[in-house]
Amino acid sequence: MTNFEIEKGEIIRQNGILNVLAELGFKENEDFIFLRNGNVEPYIFMDGEKPMYAIKIYSGHEAPLQLYSQERKQTYEIPVIDELDINKQGAVDSDKHFRYGITSGNNGIGAIYVPGQGMIISPSYEIKNIMERLFRFHETGFFVPLSNGETFRSKNRQQEWNHVKNNQQWQDLRNKSLDVNEAEQKRRDKIYKIEQVTWALQESVKLDKMPLWAQEQLKGNTMQ
User: pLDDT, tens digit, for every residue of 116-128?
Assistant: First the structure.
């Protein structure tokens, strides 16, 4: 990783992705949903009444899951996307260090994965693009949940996701109501604010809280 990736990535690692996003003006269950690491129960995704796959992050290796569909009176065996699957999709760099975050997108759904914290999913690419541009997260093309029309098996989680999608649609409609100059000024103001907050967050990063390999690289002023 480059020194810049370390410096910006440590903002995320030391402050937490949820806190950083809140500082940038994004709210959980309003602008995105968060699949947390270490969840005891897997997140299960459905195609109608048919179970499709599950996600259980930070869990080592997970065997396929056996699920009985009461509606179909049938047992399904579905794959479980686990920590090892995501790591193979770019979360670990060539030096065997965990990246501070990776991104992906599909059908308008953006996702970022932060090792040790979890996965952010949003119904736009805005957060994904910010993480790539300002924090140097790498686009790795990992599988994006909810991007092919599937739904949560949990009704509560699905209601949260529906609310986030509706909120995004409302924002899109509001932005479309602005004239070209207003829309461009609003976009610039938001970018400026996010950049200023990012610089302020940089001041919170402590060298002695970084992984040893990152401390050594920065102290050596390694040019990469």
Answer: 899 999 999 999 9
The pTM of this model reads 0.90
**pLDDT (tens digit, 9 = 90+) per residue, 148-184?**
999 999 999 999 999 999 999 988 888 888 888 888 8
DSSP string, 131-178: HHHHH-PEE-----TTTTS-EESSHHHHHHHHHHHHHHHHHHHHHHTS
Least Cα distance to 5 among 206, 196, 214, 195 occurs for 214
Please state the φ and ψ torsions of residue 77, each to the nearest 5 degrees: -110, 120
Q: What contacts 125, CB < 8 A, 6 or more positions away?
A: 105, 108, 110
Cβ count near 147 (within 10 Å): 17
Strands 74-78 and 65-69: antiparallel
Q: Please say whether the beta carbons of 44 and 153 come within 8 A.
A: yes
